[in-house]
Amino acid sequence: MGLQDLGYLSTLMKLFNFVLATTGPTLTNLKILSRYGYSATRHMTPRKLINMARVEWARFRAKDTVGGFPYILKIESTNVCNQRCPFCLDRDRDKIDDDGRGFGKMHLDCFKGVIDMLAPTTLRLNLYGSGEPVLYPDIYEMIRYAADKNIGVTISANLSVFKKENAEKLVESGLEHLIVSCHGASPETYDKYNVGGDFHKTQENMRAIVDAKRRLGKRLPFVDWQFLRFSHNQHEIPKAREMARDIGVNMIRFINPNIPPEHKEEWRPRRDDEVNDANRGEGAVKASPGVHMSESDQAVARGERTVSEKSERPKADVDPCSWLYRSIFFNWDGGILPCCDGTTEPGHDLDKFTGQTRAEFEAFWNGATYRMLRNMANFRIPREQMDKTYTCAKCIKPHMPFLLYERGFELPKKFEKRLLQTEPDLDEQRINWERNKTSRSSDVANDM
Question: What is the pTM of this model?
Answer without folding.
Answer: 0.86
